[in-house]
Amino acid sequence: MSMTGFRRWPLKNTAGRISGVVLVFHDQRLTDESQMAFSERLFGPLESTLKSSGKEDRLHPKLVDLSNIDPDHDTKLMGWDDRRMIYQSGNQLWHTDSSFKPVPAMASLLSGREVPPSGGETEFVSMRHAYATLPEATRRQADGRVVVHSILYSRSTIAKGLFDPEHERELLPVRQALVRVNPVNGRKGIYIGSHAWYIEGMDPAESRRLLDELLAHTTRPECVFQHHWRQWDLVMWDNRCVHHRGRPWDATAYKRVMRRTTIAGDRPTAEPPLATRTPVWDGIIAQGVGIA
């Protein structure tokens, strides 16, 4: 693999200090096999892809297929009214990959195989900058807190019934530190996004308000880097300090074919990593699922 056309996009805070980095490599003509091999050789083990109605694992258990091409009819495009695309539209919410897993992802590599002429951008913001620019009182309120994350919660904000019942039972809500500390350099970031459901030990409505305020602070327009895709771009980012989201495009007219490899994390952010069932789960998480 030739690392040509390299661009480094530092996400800076107001003091000019780099607080998150997105790496862009142009003209990387990867196959599925070479992307998986490169990712694993450079960073370490790959995550297994979630089983869902989006069929993102259809090509390989270690490769995420993000595409509007019908997996059952390769010449047909899926519009946003298709159940599989409704599921994929969750990627247009601000998130960090796999925060709904007990051990969240370390990094992601996204390859643009086919891209639309307009729309379909990917946007990024720095969690570290967000934490560094919080008012001191809000930092004190956030430090030491634990947030329950769930993809069943986040997808429920889009539509009901996006997971089959047997898959739902495998997706237990997990606990993540609200302020995530990099174990190498000690730097802190606000670890939230669409999967962040509620803060333990707080009134649910109060915790929802705080999470919404933190996300609005993190994703202020002046803090957003927007990547406009070229075919064969390869974009890498660190999920421990960067949030991202995809943007919509005309899915009935243009293909958008992306492949993602996701580097597995090495530790939970909170112990124990699995959440305990509370009344907040009712209507979202099936009865009998989770730690009572």
Give the topology.
Blueprint lengths: L5 E7 L5 E8 L6 H12 L20 E4 L15 H6 L18 E8 L7 E5 H6 L3 H7 L3 E4 L1 H6 L8 H4 L5 E4 L1 E3 L6 E3 L5 E4 L4 H15 L6 E3 L6 E5 L3 E5 L10 E7 L29
Antiparallel strand pairs: 1-2, 2-12, 3-14, 4-12, 4-14, 5-11, 5-13, 6-7, 6-10, 8-9
Low-confidence stretches: 1-6, 12-19
Shape: globular
CATH class membership = Alpha Beta
Percent range for β-strand residues: 15-25%
Q: Note the run of SSEs as H and E.
A: EEHEHEEHHEHHEEEEHEEEE
Distance between the termini: 49 Å
**Rounded to an integer, what's the Rg over CA atoms?**
19 Å
Strand order of the largest sheet: 1-2-12-4-14-3
Count of spatially separate domains: 1
* Average pLDDT, all residues: 90
Q: What profile does the largest beta sheet have? A: 6 strands, antiparallel
CATH fold group:
Double-stranded beta-helix
CATH architecture: 4-Layer Sandwich
What level of helicity do the residues show? 10-25%
CATH superfamily membership: Clavaminate synthase-like
Task: Give keywords.
24% strand; 7 helices; alpha+beta; 19% helix; three-stranded antiparallel beta sheet; disordered N terminus; 14 strands; 292 residues; single chain
What can you see in these coordinates?
The chain has 292 residues and is α+β, with helices and mostly antiparallel strands. The chain has helices at 32-43, 83-88, 127-132, 136-142, 151-156, 165-168, 204-218, and strands spanning 6-12, 18-25, 64-67, 107-114, 122-126, 146-149, 174-177, 179-181, 188-190, 196-199, 225-227, 234-238, 242-246, 257-263. It has one domain: 4-Layer Sandwich (Double-stranded beta-helix), CATH 3.60.130.10. The chain is built from 7 helices and 14 strands. The strands form 4 sheets. It has a 6-stranded antiparallel sheet with strand order 1-2-12-4-14-3. A 3-stranded antiparallel sheet has the order 11-5-13. A 3-stranded antiparallel sheet has the order 7-6-10. It starts with 5 loop residues before the first strand and ends in a 29-residue tail after the last strand.
